[in-house]
Amino acid sequence: MEMLPHALNWFEIPVTDFDRAKKFYSAIYDYEMPEQQFGPNRMGFLLFDRETGGIGGAIVKGENYVPSSDGARIYLAGGNDLSTVLSRVENSGGKIVFPKILIGPGLGYMAYINDTEGNMLGLFSPH
What we know:
Blueprint: E1 10-14, H1 18-29, E2 35-38, E3 41-45, E4 56-61, E5 75-77, H2 82-89, E6 95-104, E7 108-114, E8 120-125
Parallel strand pairs: 1-4, 5-8
Antiparallel strand pairs: 2-3, 3-4, 6-7, 7-8
Helix pairs in contact: 1-2
């Protein structure tokens, strides 16, 4: 089998209330989320550096997009220090489910949050 450079190519986070979800993600990452309509789907894009091969994703409202805390778990980048993003979660309508912990020496930190739509997501940072 071919060794792929990344295990992830793109991700989509299902939302039911697009405006509420856009406000949540814009608040925790401190930016204005760009959005676009693709056919019947409304998408809001999380920031990433495409020029250096970064992997992107979006929040999506559309048919067959159902938020869940039981589905596949994705880990969003939490910046250099996860504490910054985590400090904005609850004031933005989300919930910290599992606080920031060290994964292991040299492996970074993680936390779990629920977004405003009921999705459980992981967050990761090196510090």
